[in-house]
Structure formats: structure tokens, C-alpha cells
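Work Package 4 report. The design task specified in the project plan requires that, given a folded chain encoded as C-alpha cells, an amino acid be chosen for each position. We show below one input record used in the internal validation round.
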């Protein structure tokens, strides 16, 4: 069975998803890309194929992942863009959101920002400690874009972070509240989960 580098919820996009699988097929490695692209829907493209060692695992071998979340700030969201952004045309203190993003850099227990899934428990009983190497907001035309790179991410973690930063932007929370929310280790302390449409898995490093 194929193993992806991580979850991609419905509505979330992946620019560089990595997957591994074992096969006894006689198809040469060089032909796999064309063969799979002929079978897959046009919304999914295989960009490269290579043979790896048997112990390589798409998720467990990953060292860093980078995600990007796009918020469209203009009054009217272009219809051809709507699937790939979250539209928020209302007032936001973007500078405060940028300062809040820095509060999550470093090694922390991100339980407050993990999805509550009663069927799996909190991340299947694994530690919710992760290291965030960089966390930043940046203006790009009509878009306000959040980029975050970390050692790994919990289910819904990026979307829950964005939802919390939006509360800072609205003035509901102060920048300093983000640290308090981290320390609380309670999902109920953080903001709502941001819409899936704005989130992209950008890169996986091994």
C-alpha cells in the first residue's frame, strides 16, 4: 500500500507530496512516471520516480516539511483563485499576526493546535512535541501568506495555528496569548480550524 509523507485533508493541496510503495512489477523505473500519469486523474501528476532503499519511509524518514497558507485579502476573490485561498476581506492587524507567528518557533508541545480525533486519540498516542524552524507571515499583492517549516506537523496543526493568528489579527487575542495557549496544551484554548482551501504542502526534505 502506498505511504504518503503525511495527511492531506480534503480541500488541502500538495505541491510536492512524496509517496513510497513496494512493487514486484517488471516495469522499468524510468517508465513508471508515464504509466502512473496515464492512469491518474489530471488533478494528480507524478513529477519524478526513483528507487530507494528498503528502509526508506515517506513519512518516518522526513526531516523537515514546509507548508504555506494563503489568505486573499481583496474585496472580491477571483473565482478561478477561490479554490486555492481562504478569502478574508475584513480588517486585520497583519503586523500583530506576523509577531504572533514568531511565538511558535522552537520546540514546543503543540497539543493546543492538534485536531481532537476521538477515534485515533491525540496523534495515536505519540508525542505532540514538534520543532518549528521558521514561522512567518508575508504580504504578496492581495494575499497574506503564512509559511511554516518544521520537523513535523500534527493533524490540522497548521490550520489551527492560522485560525489562532486570525484571532490576533482581529484583536480578540493579544500576541502574547499565543505563548499561553501553547503552554495550556488544550485544544479549546486555540482558535477555530482555518478553511482547508488555503493550505499547501510545499516541500518535504529528507
Amino acid at each position: 500500500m502506498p505511504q504518503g509523507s503525511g495527511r492531506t485533508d480534503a480541500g488541502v493541496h500538495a505541491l510536492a507530496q512524496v509517496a513510497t510503495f513496494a512493487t514486484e512489477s517488471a516495469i522499468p523505473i524510468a517508465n513508471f512516471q508515464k504509466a502512473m500519469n496515464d492512469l491518474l486523474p489530471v488533478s494528480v501528476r507524478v513529477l519524478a520516480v526513483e528507487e530507494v532503499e528498503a528502509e526508506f519511509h515517506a513519512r518516518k524518514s522526513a526531516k523537515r516539511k514546509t507548508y504555506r497558507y494563503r489568505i486573499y485579502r481583496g474585496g472580491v476573490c477571483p473565482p478561478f483563485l477561490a479554490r486555492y485561498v481562504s478569502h478574508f476581506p475584513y480588517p486585520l492587524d497583519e503586523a500583530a499576526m506576523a509577531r504572533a507567528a514568531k511565538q511558535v518557533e522552537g520546540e514546543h508541545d503543540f497539543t493546543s493546535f492538534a485536531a481532537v480525533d476521538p477515534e485515533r486519540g491525540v496523534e495515536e498516542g505519540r508525542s505532540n512535541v514538534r520543532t518549528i524552524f521558521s514561522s512567518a507571515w508575508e504580504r504578496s499583492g492581495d494575499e497574506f501568506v503564512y509559511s511554516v517549516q518544521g520537523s513535523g506537523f500534527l493533524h490540522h496543526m497548521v490550520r489551527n495555528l492560522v485560525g489562532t493568528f486570525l484571532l490576533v489579527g482581529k484583536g480578540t487575542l493579544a500576541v502574547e496569548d499565543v505563548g499561553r495557549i501553547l503552554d495550556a496544551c488544550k485544544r479549546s484554548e486555540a482558535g477555530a480550524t482555518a478553511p482547508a482551501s488555503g493550505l499547501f504542502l510545499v516541500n518535504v526534505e529528507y
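The chain has a mean pLDDT of 93. Validation will be extended to a larger panel in the next phase.
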